[in-house]
Write a structure and sequence with these properties.
- The protein is an all-alpha fold and about 150 residues long.
- It has a single domain (about 1-55, about 85-145), classed as Non-ribosomal Peptide Synthetase Peptidyl Carrier Protein, Chain A.
- The protein contains five helices and two strands.
- The protein has helices at about 1-10, 10-45, 75-80, 85-125, 135-145; strands at about 55-60, 85.
- Strands 1-2 form a two-stranded antiparallel ribbon.
- Helix 2 (about 10-45) packs across helix 4 (about 85-125).
- The protein is elongated and about 70 Å long.
- It starts with a helix and ends with a helix.
Amino acid sequence: MWGEFKTFIARGNVLDLAVGVIIGAAFGTITSSLTDDIIMPVVGALFGGVDFSSYFIVLGDIPASYTGSPNNYAALKAAGVPLFGFGQFVTVLINFLILAFIVFLMVRSVNRLLARVEKEKAAGEAPAAAEAAEVVLLREIRDELKKRPEN
């Protein structure tokens, strides 16, 4: 079983998936920052300086021990007060739409590139595309892992 697991991990597509997940997480952080630090302040300014995260409805009682502001969404949420945070949802929704649009643009570009390569192949003029340094490095790592004896 251990040998099968090592074989599974050493496959190129698993390494590609791992790289994709790591890059995706970093990309999600960038998108969140774009939304929170650039887009939402501009949208808030257009709507009169409003911070969308401050739009919420308190659904339950605020504990008597709570000493913070009744208008602070994060503090109320941390105190366990049930909240209907539609402003935060708007922020997350905008974040998702930006991310989805960027992924759409990337897939669209790759599809166009692949279509062009296929068209050139059909014409017999397909030039050999140079591989990115990251791809070559990952392939070398995969090949080295394949060469190692199984324990």
